[in-house]
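step=encode ok
step=design start
structure_in=
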């Protein structure tokens, strides 16, 4: 048990999670709290973020804080980060996870829709990572970051068409590598997870027959659960991954191998 704790404990660490009110972010927030972390939630709906933070504090007896912020608002992120650091004392880790999808053929996608997806999924990830990395470097903190990319950064999904999403996620993978290189000398590790189809609110609204097709196209013949990503995030943020940086961990039931 001691070895397990040594490998994967996040005790005495505080983790910032974007998009932590629901879906993957929320489930990961619960899991990191269960292995000892304090949790800060940034989400676009402040009431839901506060509700999640309160529930996690009560359930796991950890310290939590939440802030309402749109990750595309650079100044807003800066101000929330300042407030969170004041409240928590220090933040060590980041799960940079908020994201959206618009499913439309390229021909029908407006410039506004394209920009919206790139803004949240790529610029938002960049803004939060940049401000958090700056905070770590200025304070000499040897932290770690996990960005949420997607298998869509490696393959083109079907039958749904979503070029803006696929492009944004490919950008997140390469941003991850670029940040990992720039910050390696500061002992800040940057990695990403690339989930396959995971059943959350983000994927619940699509046509039932598409979801069935996704499951059939996955070698494991099912969609994943957010819980099945939590261990990967904990590993990449923990000291177990002390020599891992710039990597992409694909968790997709085998979708991308065929
Ligand atoms: P959800 O839609 O369930 O949760 C996303 C959360 O992020 C919501 O709370 C949402 O708020 C919040 N959010 C959205 N936009 C912003 C913004 N601009 N600023 C701050 N918060 C915001 O999605 P998932 O949990 O499924 O997805 C999480 C991440 O995982 C995303 O990056 C997604 O692309 C990625 N992913 C998901 C997969 C899947 O199959 N589900 C597969 C691969 C990757 P609100 O509730 O108001 O929308």
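sequence_out=
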């Amino acid at each position: 048990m001691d070895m397990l704790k040594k490998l994967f404990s996040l005790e005495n660490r505080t983790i910032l999670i974007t998009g932590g009110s629901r879906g993957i972010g929320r489930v990961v927030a619960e899991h990191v709290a269960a292995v000892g972390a304090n949790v800060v939630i940034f989400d676009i709906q402040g009431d839901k973020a506060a509700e999640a933070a309160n529930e996690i504090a009560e359930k796991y007896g950890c310290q939590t804080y939440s802030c309402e912020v749109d990750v595309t608002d650079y100044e807003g992120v800066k101000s929330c980060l300042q407030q969170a650091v004041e409240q928590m004392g220090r933040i060590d880790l980041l799960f940079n996870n908020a994201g959206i999808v618009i499913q439309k053929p390229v021909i029908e996608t407006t410039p506004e829709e394209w920009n919206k997806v790139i803004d949240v999924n790529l610029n938002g990830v960049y803004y939060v990572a940049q401000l958090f990395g700056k905070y770590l470097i200025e304070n000499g903190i040897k932290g770690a970051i996990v960005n949420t990319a997607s298998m869509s950064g490696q393959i083109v999904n079907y039958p749904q068409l979503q070029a803006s999403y696929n492009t944004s996620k490919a950008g997140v993978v390469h941003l991850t590598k670029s940040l990992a290189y720039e910050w390696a000398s500061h002992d800040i590790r940057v990695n990403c997870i690339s989930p396959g189809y995971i059943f959350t609110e983000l994927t619940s609204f699509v046509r039932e027959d598409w979801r069935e097709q996704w499951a059939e196209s996955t070698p494991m013949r099912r969609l994943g659960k957010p819980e099945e990503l939590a261990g990967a995030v904990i590993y990449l943020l923990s000291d177990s991954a002390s020599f891992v940086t710039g990597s992409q961990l694909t968790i997709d039931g085998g979708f991308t191998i065929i």
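step=design ok
step=annotate ok -> The beta strands are 14-18, 38-43, 64-68, 93-96, 144-148, 189-195, 248-251.
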